[in-house]
Amino acid sequence: xxxxxQFPLQDCDPQETQEWKDxxxxxxxxxxxDRAQFLLKTLMAYANSQGLSAPGDVNTPLANTIPVxxxxxxxLADIPLFEKLTNAMRWNAIAMVMRAGKISSELGGHIxxxxxxxxxxxxxxxxxxxxxxxxxxxxxxxxxxxxxxxIYARAYLEGRLSDKQLDGFRQEITKDGLSSYxxxxxxxDFWQFPTVSMGLGPLxxxxxxxxxxxxxxxxxxxxxxxxxxxxxxxxELGEPESLGAxxxxxxxxxDNLIFVxxxxxxxLDGPVWGNGQIIQEYEGVFRGAGWNVIKVIWxxxxxxxxxxxxxxxxxxxxxxxxxxxxxxxxxxxGAYLRQEFFGKSPELLALxxxxxxxxxxxxxxxxxxxxxxxxxxxxxxxxxxxxxxxxLAKTVKGFGMGKSGEALNVAHQTKKMPAEELKHFHDRxxxxxxxxxxxxLNYYKPEKNSAEMKFLKSQREKLGGSLPARNxxxxxxxxxxxxxxxxxxxxxxxRHISTTMAYVRILSVLLKDAxxxxxxxxxxxxxxxxxxMEGLFRQIGIYSPFGQRYQPEDKHLLMYYREDEKGQxxxxxxxxxxxxxxxxAAATSYSTNHVPMIPxxxxxxxxxxxxxxxxxxxxxxxxxxxxxxxxTAGRTTLAGEGLQHQDGHNFMMFGMTPxxxxxxxxxxxxxxxxxxxxxxxxxxNQENIFYYLTLMNENYHQPAxxxxxxxxxxxxxxxxxxxxxxxxxxNLLGSGTIxxxxxxxxxxxxxxxxxxxxxxxxxxxxxLRKDMDTVDRENRLNPAENRKLCYVExxxxxxxxxxxxxxxxxxxNANQIRPAIHVPYYxxxxxxxxxxxxxxxxxxxxxxxxxxxxxxxxxALFEAGKIDKKALLAAQKKLNIDAxxxxxxxx
Length: 891
What we know:
The radius of gyration is 32 Å and the shape is elongated. By secondary structure, the chain is an alpha/beta fold. α13 (about 335-340) packs across α15, α23 packs parallel to α25 and α29 packs across α34. The longest helix is centred in the first third of the chain and has 36 residues, at about 15-50. Helix content is about 40%, strand content about 10%.
């Protein structure tokens, strides 16, 4: 194996070196750290100007960042109490998982993650994490998902969870027990953020911290003393989302944001980077991104050795070791550590000669397991200004699990420990358990009046109460009546507009409404001008924590680019996932801040669910409330942009999220009805739902809303025109922009073939399918009752004519309701990859244009025996339908 290159450590002039050190010591002593930092930066800049590439510009040695002399001190009397409580939590977490495993091996659970992170979490819980109180809005904490057993174990000691609830771990159906991981939907009073889909926690937290500043700057909440804490593993940082927005945090100087990286050097199957030093790599990444980096590598006993080691041999030995070796040191006994780490030279061995093998194993712990080191790091982090902070804490995965999992590659999958290892665990952590307690995996709770339990209670009382906790209480907003959007409910006359422009008009109405205008949070991922929203730049301003320090080049224009500290619009740049994370922060503000906000996130629909679907699913878990708008939706609406811009599937994908209400409206009045009703449901009735709405960029005539259409719009379908569901030769269904083709097809059928057609606007096949499934289940479970009709069946109750549906999405979209249609049903859709061409050409290619819809209606009548083959073939020719054309799906 080739060794990593190191700068030479040999010192050819020790006296000169000492003089430089003495000079720095003098500056630190008499002028402080700020002056010392200035001098170092000046010196580095000068070195670069002389062509000298100085080492160590993004990395420091693999050592603790905070010198012992500068550590904030944890109260000594607290340490034994802290250890007793943390060790009890370690045991209860293991007992809970193993007790579930005895019921069924299917249930599973993780014990190694909390083993490595217990000290990191508990120092925060005992000293730093504020709950919501009259004096504090509460810190927001993104816990490592796999550490959930440890969080439950703490809540058990606090009396928040019972033995019965712990015994229901991962048995939510049979025992109404605890969820596997942090899930607000399942435990709405406990968890705040779902984090087990790794990578999402760090990303969401960055935008959450930014949104706290947004609320503060706009005067909605006092958030200056609130912090966002993020716990995640070093392996988790391999997810692109984990590191993808670090520059945003530094750019906005989010000093309310603290990452705690549990660096146990292992991911799920083995080392994160066994051939290198992952902590050093991440230090470079975070420092390079502009973060304050605090490394917590070595526990207290190591300080003693470093002090003894005047020659710097330990530091050099540390530099030589890679993570695969560090993992093996942790997974073996003290004798192995003595031989393989210190045994490289007699001088190193001499440094530990006075320590037994047991003392080396137990005493030479990593910094992430030393409460004093972690306390000092947290204290330094909360004192940092103008920068986000990351704490890189070295730990051992499965700390204390011995041969069952401590530092083993199989640690993540380990769900149980043999009796002898449980006994070893008991002895190592000094637990007050009997042999029977160990054998039966009894939970352990110290006496109520014991010193440690009093300490547990008093520390949380000082910090405002128990965590985690979620409180969704918030005011109900007064939303405008539908009449406020009257202009959109009326005929547009000769003016043709798109539903995207209709959305902008809806925003304009909302931004003038006295009750909610300040609550509206427009969010865009750098496409405001594409969507015709540039007028908002001047009207409400683009949020920037620093205002606008320059004069924009377009200042002479009416709609110039205006940034403002109190700006309302969130313009998140070219990052759909980032903008979605900002939307989540706003959409959950009602619970995190008790300040309900109304976010509207608009973006190219194609760059939607398949790009950030994990965040959409998390939004459902978090009970988000707000609007997501997929603009330029449909496979054929975005003409020239081509394959990777044309969306024929995202609408259905949003339909997969249980509490997402999704619509594909065609007309401005449909959009107005849906938005108004959505605001009523989410912000007045406070339902835990959110909305996905498609928008199109195609301009066409906007008719007036038909009388009585409102209910059908919301249910998912209504009759747009025709003489009645039971009359007419055919029924034509359309949604989105393809409804305009359906209307043309009906006109062709009437004028060219003397056939009457009923036209139905389907605002949501997704919502129709949900209703169909609900009614189907009710009928199936209640056979003795009269059979109920789903809404689709009610619409076509007396119909005997064939039905043809066409959409700008895959055929699967309209096929969702096929079981509810009891006459011949024909579906047209846009399966396959998109193309660049005109809308007319695209709709012909995908076979969803007016001619193909009309021809399909004629074919349906032919199959029903209403017209003969000769008439059908004549119509095929007249409508320019080429029977030999290739199928779009296969082209």
